[in-house]
């Protein structure tokens, strides 16, 4: 009885939260009509592979029966085009786009709510944290996501990465609720849109395995992994085939994923790749592309093995790493990572650099646009200004990631050595 | 700093930190208590992590490294290419078919005359690169196709019996490649005479007709990359000198030339000219005639108040070379992709005065600049007329036309059709040799610069070049040879000047270290250290096991 | 045995004896920024000199990495001077810069020399030389032991330069080259050259700096380098026009340590005939454009007349007829279909089947939702 009542309250509260978040977004959209376009043009929000402007260009070409990939501006998944062509023209009736993006944010928040409510952050099948009592409920976690300025800015800038965010969060949520197929389907959507989420497959499989584990009928992990891989391949194949049917050629593969793999578009962004590859000797370019991609993907197996007991932590850490080392990162990736961090409320006391991290991230947030302005518009700075600030930004993010990883491991270690609680550690 | 964690977020990814930093290993508390021994499962887990990094590095990283840093060098048929350059692949022999149209002579006599003339020709001709072969026109033994195909016959000799009193005489037909020979009827050889006056006469005539062509071709062979043992016997030094002078004058072959006609005046008038009509009238026919060999594009311009590079009224020979005011006259060659030939009509008060040639001094109004174009000085029209009529332009344009022929390298003797066909043959020989020498250059370059990459389209170009060279070589002297030689030369140039062959020319090894070390060091050191630690741990475990046993 | 030797020598002899038919100049400045004013002035002075001696703009490749005339710090906007007397404005109103600003790169320079350029490169930016072209290559900038810095980012090494010249020689892209370089340790830049027919000279030895000549206090920076200054002085005073008979040797002999403050170097060993032949070359063979004109006599002008015109008309008509016949025959002989070529054409924009698009969109959306729903349904 009490429990029911509580959950009802929670639902009512969540609904209120959602309404307020949606209202805030729509207010920003309508009160500042110039804001969406301003944010769409920001390099921190829109990357060549997610930009809304480029989507509109592709959409225009598509609607006028021209191959959307002609002209080399549009680098996003082909299926986005028929979906967006259902909406009225965004330049004349922008409200529909606003509503769509607000809805997507709410859907993401809903998935996040479920993730937080599952309590997987503090207590998984194989591991239960001694601090697990100390946690935030879904309401708080969803609120932290919805009112995160990065999320709001992303929503108003309307990059297509919000769809990837939504799909990843749903994949996690579905895996937590034991819906393996939908989880894999969701992961396929995310992969189809942005490619890099494919690297989340191993921890996702483990997460799904742990959540569906039945001690009476133990299933083998390998079998489940095979099934999941099959499901992902099948749904990806389906998506690719329908894209092929839509565009009439396989050209979209090189124009979407090829761009990410070869970094052909060197538009500056918040990441580390663009500057490096503008300066790279041509003969080493392809080699270092390989090195960077390998670097990005080499974390997945190692982290999955090391944190086998806490798959959600693996996913969170990986998302943080992707937000730093992806070829075209934006603050949308950061907001996705930051949205999952509150699920680990219980290890917050173990974080050591929270003040430094917060300062560095704030520093990057405010100085990034300023330096970009100095470089591009004022002409009084050069590319090094902006690159320096993206370095600071990445340093801040990597501090968060490493600090979180430290905290999670320390938490694990204290289970093993309970006598060490609260003591200083040092390397020997 | 604790090593207790796996420091994932560090910008410099360090795989090995994962291995040295396990919760149970590196921790000591302040009270100096020994940490409990590491659990078996932890050790195994660490090994797996090290293994996962190494697997990625070895099975994906190494192939990527190998594939992306090796310089792509397509296989070129190097020996074939040098063979072409050295002249081993193709014997540059131009077999010219001369048809002998004997008219009403009986078969027997005609054959006889043919045999004798051929003999005389062979005796006369000591240049093996140019082979004149006689055949009977309309001969029943010849395959009909060959007879009909006129383009393979360079010249037809039309024999006609003439006045018995006179000796044999010959004249070239103005429109067609025909040599008309009038012979006294009694000079026909008898069935078994060893020689004949008529035969010798025809042979000499043929020899002189083709002498210029022979000289030019043997000059081309001599200045080419072909090694001496592969080229026919040479020519004398004086001939080389004269031909060389002529060849330096002519423009490099191009399928299209751009002709620029400029009217420069030293004052405000005249400001217009009937150039289109004049060109149509006096130059177009010749251009049309040359169509089989070259294309032409034309533009014109008028420039008022143009001051020449030399101001003196009477221009000496020295002045002529600096007459063109290159700094101020808009003689831009950058129109289109074709080389430009400039024709300048200058209206002013200047005259040419060359002291040595007394008679020419008064009348000469024009001069030619090798490989560039020509200039014609025109006296100002009376009464400050603003317009130059087509009639006034007649002489300049005719002069330009003759200069154009010279600049194109047209031979100077013989009838017009013969000169044209000779030009085609010279050009195909020239192109063939140039393409061959380009192949040789490319082959030598490939061997000399091991660090230059050779993309596959260079190899394709080379193969195409060789193919067309073979075709051109097989049809030397024929009509198709120019076209094949042209394609071969074009392909060879394209292969040699392949745009992407410039990328990495000089990249010494110390630069490579500078590139690899700072970037791969932070990745490589932890990888190696992790592996070493693993091996050490494995060794200790084994020795402990042995001890226990 | 003698004959092949003679044959072998014959082309060489003609090559040496044969004159060049065109002159080209490649003038390269490699440094940016205001304080390198003098490098730009060096190049522009050379440009002015070769142009004065008759090399047309179409045969001068001028590479200027910065625009000093329009630099905001220039007290005399629109001008560049190489002397503090400011007598000659080098910028003038008739200057054709072929490669400017960030176009001046090592790659572009190597491409220029080797002519490995794309179809899109206009003829005016190419070095269209052949085996009868003399080329004057002048470079200035900041350099070091066997390298010359380009802009701020890259450098060309002496081996790169040598390989580029060798490629030019292989492809018969020059007759003779005069290579002149004014930079610190300049002589090291030509030390690696190995292709024939090159005369090289540089301003300073290994471990020697090249110094500027003087500064203009109103411009505020040094306006010219010593080595270039004395080269120009010689050229301006001794080579007044193309008829000058001054030789390369005369120029090289005018160099002295007292004037240049460094040891200018000269390299003859690549030149056919060695030092003697190289020294006897006229300066105008490289700095000027000597055209060997051919004057028409009265007789020559009559070579073409009305008769020939009418004749060529006939011939053209005949060949046209022949070609038509040939074409007709070809048409009859072969019934091969013309191969449809894929031509890139601009496609007219049309929003014809917008309805289909919406339908496709709806289908795609419905498909995704159905897939999702099916998955959820099956799992519950």
From TrEMBL, chain A:
Keywords: Endoplasmic reticulum, GPI-anchor biosynthesis, Membrane, Transmembrane, Transmembrane helix. InterPro entries: PIG-U (IPR009600). It is a multi-pass membrane protein. It is found in: Endoplasmic reticulum membrane. Its main location: endoplasmic reticulum. Pfam families: PIG-U. Pathway: Glycolipid biosynthesis; glycosylphosphatidylinositol-anchor biosynthesis. The chain crosses the membrane at residues 12-32, 95-115, 136-153, 189-209, 221-246, 272-295, 307-325, 360-379, 385-409. It comes from the Eukaryota. Belongs to the PIGU family. This is GPI transamidase subunit PIG-U. It comes from Apiospora saccharicola.
Automatic annotation (TrEMBL), chain B:
Residues 1-11 have a biased composition (Basic and acidic residues). It holds the Pfam family PIG-S. Residues 1-24 are annotated as: Disordered. Pathway: Glycolipid biosynthesis; glycosylphosphatidylinositol-anchor biosynthesis. The chain crosses the membrane at residues 48-66, 513-532. Keywords: Endoplasmic reticulum, Glycoprotein, GPI-anchor biosynthesis, Membrane, Transmembrane, Transmembrane helix. InterPro entries: PtdIno-glycan_biosynth_class_S. It is a multi-pass membrane protein. It is found in: Endoplasmic reticulum membrane. Signal peptide: none annotated. The keyword Transmembrane applies. Belongs to the PIGS family. PANTHER family: GPI TRANSAMIDASE COMPONENT PIG-S. This is Phosphatidylinositol-glycan biosynthesis class S protein.
TrEMBL record, chain C:
Residues 1-18 form the signal peptide. Pathway: Glycolipid biosynthesis; glycosylphosphatidylinositol-anchor biosynthesis. Keywords: GPI-anchor biosynthesis, Signal. It comes from the Eukaryota. PANTHER family: GPI-ANCHOR TRANSAMIDASE. Belongs to the peptidase C13 family. This is Peptidase C13 family protein. The lineage of its organism: Eukaryota, Fungi, Dikarya, Ascomycota, Pezizomycotina.
